[in-house]
Amino acid sequence: MTESPVALITGGGSGIGAAVARRLLDAGQRVAVTGRGEERLRAFAEELGEPEELLTLVGNASDYDDVRSAVDGTLTEYGRLDTVVANAGFATHDSVADGEPAGWTEMVLTNVLGPALLIRASVDALKESRGRIVLVGSVAGFVPTPGNLYGATKWAVTGLAENTRRQVTEWGIGVTLIAPGRVETPFWDSSGGLPPGRLLTADQIADSVVWAVRRPAGVDVNTVVVRPLGQPN
Fold first, then answer.
1. What CATH fold (topology level) applies to the domain 6-226?
2. Residue 78 appears among annotated catalytic residues
């Protein structure tokens, strides 16, 4: 167990992040998850029976001190770091023409700056393990949506993934962008309800993340776009 791989997931207390954590734990890995809500993290750990292989860390994904503290805490607890999953993010569900700008700063910082901070804080540890960076983007980062600033943040994540890959590949670090379509998660809670049509589950996206993470040494899966059947855009 002391040599089992270790993953750090931001926004890991619910939704896709929690589903990835469960899958990795089931695969015998050790997992650290971060989130802003201590109660949510505690409930997640209790739901899983508070396993020794799970570490919960309260922190803001867009605050560099918090991100560095999460990386350091993971290394202190488990002695290594093999995978980071930049999953924390949210949408204000409005548009640039008629939305409320008060919510945009936090969204842009979480969705764009957050993944960059996680990369910066973890890159030295990932060099040692020849590990992997996983960025959770979105189909909205490939298909423009009228007036959608959230989509623009995910276009930035799409670019960040390739820009990062070009730098870190020489150090033996893999980079994977997972770009989901519509997924049934708490993401939609602030929008008034789930969108119409078929949705993917968080577990289905987690399957793609774990598949990419567990590729053989030397294999670098870079972009995975996953839509539910019936989603045209």
1. Rossmann fold (3.40.50)
2. no
